[in-house]
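Researcher: Please translate sequence to structure tokens.
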Amino acid sequence: MLRAAVIRLDSDQPFNGFVVAYESDELQFPVWVLLILTAMLFYASIAEGSAVLMLLSLFPGCFAFHNLPLLETGKTRLAANQDCLFIDGLGRIGWRFINSISLAEIVVRGSAYKEADIALAAPLATALLEDARGMPLHRRLMRKPFYLKSGRTIRVPLEIFDRPPEHIIASLLRIWLHNRGKPQKGEFG
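Model: Translation complete:
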């Protein structure tokens, strides 16, 4: 079943369709722990006047900063409707530019992770209907809900979202198969 919602993405345009965000339970705890550890080390470095402790506080601080988007659990990270597929930090990709969507199982150090493998029919610059990659520098240093595997393949880790990976892939496939041959709004032909 599709999780339908009317939301606002980074722009002011409403978005009707399937929406997923980061899971709130397990992801926030390590980030909060690192933020508290950073604050404690930073406070200790000021109290002691120690440059070593100050530098030591940078390591957990940088890692916490990179993972700060995991605390924004209500923000849409992946969405799909009749017009496009939206990936936060990347933009909107038209359905006609997507060749396939599949579930890939990646094994890293003995642990299996599930990812959406999205193969594009055109280069990314052509496939993007709305490019959201031009974000401020501090946002570019933070975690994104995707990574580019090659020139025409996008991988989206699914384990961190609030829906099971199989449900996300099934919903995306259903929407893609239904809408891939239809022209986009405002398009003739």
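Researcher: Any highlights?
Model: Residues 1-12 have pLDDT under 50 and may be disordered.
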